[in-house]
Here is the input.
Amino acid sequence: MNNRRGGILLAVSSLPGSFGIGDLGKHAYEWIDKLSSTHASLWQILPLNPLGYGNSPYQSYSAFAGDEIYISVEKLYQALGLSVPSFDVKTGHVDYDAVRIKKDVFLKEAYAHFVPDENYEKFVKETAWLHDYAVFMSLRTINGFVSWTQWTRLIPDEDIVNYHKFLQYIFMEQWLELKAYANAKDVLIMGDIPIYLGHDSADVYFNRDLFFLDEDGTSTLVAGVPPDYFSDEGQLWGNPIYAWERMAKDNYRYWVDRLSWNQTMFDIIRIDHFRAFDTYWVVDGKSTTAKDGEWRIGPRNQFFDSMYAQIPDLKIVVEDLGDLRPEVLELRDDYKLKGMQIIQYSIKKEEIERDKTMPQNLLIYTGTHDNQPIGGWVQDNTWKRRMEVRRDIGKCGIKDFNFIDRVCHYTLSLNADYAILPMQDILRLGNAARMNAPGTVGSPNWEWKVVDFDDEFNKRLLKFKIMMEQTNRN
Here is the structure.
């Protein structure tokens, strides 16, 4: 297998699924079979952690746990010898509330029939983060799901604690089985971890000394990005800020635990917002915009030296997009980390010329979950602009008639080691299939999904396979 890997970005939630959401059941295995048949060796997903505010996978209740919404009820019921429920919800959008309500009924029924065995006891004993997470979720439940700074009841319900331990055991069992199947098909799974944590999370609740919080637990400093070309106010993310100097005192134990756990979950880890390890934007916790913040120096080489000393086989790629100071790229290159490039941002004549000398140690995309599909770019640009791009890409030897196919083929043809296409681009979809619009919260973000693996889906995958072969990727 050569180093020119190709793959597809498709969230687990976006797979077909009998409950109206993709999960770790039969459709996930069918997807891996289909992906493998194209000779692709990379499947990139979005974070699998418990979905937080707005159903965002980037505002989770835990940086370690998996969301039980992805558990395959069918596989679980088969394993327990229960009558398997029969559903076949065919939809192009996930209704998270409806799915969660429906699945919760079946998961609680399964829990009532579950008999702990040696494997379960081993998982509970050896999974260091599990008890804290289960206690946190129990306290959230008995306090009416309000933020932990408002909790009045602080004694967990043991049955709820044990229920969440059961859910995590089943999730991990199903996930690792699926991952092993993918690896046997020569498919590597690239996970995705946000750099920051949601305030309403077990991680922050049980590690308050590692963040800038007041006595009540409220964030005194929060994360964001400063004003730029796209926003006069900047982006106020609101995540708690790490107290890096305190973290350094125990050699960043929290981060070692977090990355080590994700290393068991995924073959490659993509770290979001890499620049924050060099410099990060800090805003007062009471501020209503991000524009009055300031840059602070991150842990830089000290952090990565510590990570690689404690996790020598750590496999990460980094999101290094945006307006960066040179030191960010130097930090990336010190560890020979693959950065990212979005072709949607560079399909103009001067950039296309520059792409011809693109470095190999790179991960390229037509776009990510935060971008509009190429079909949306087509909708939003003039005929003249599209013709200019078509002509310039054509000069590189890429002659596909369909504009979206031409951009996809061009991306795969470039010099970067890794090239990944969102499933929406392979399917030639437009803005209605966009996964997320940064700066917005709620529907329709995170809701798009494949309805079914129908003839059109298979036809588009066959076209992708041909592109992979023509660009010598696997």
Notes: The first strand starts at residue 5 and ends at 9. The longest helix spans residues 158-184. DSSP finds 18 helices and twelve strands in the chain. The mean pLDDT is 96.
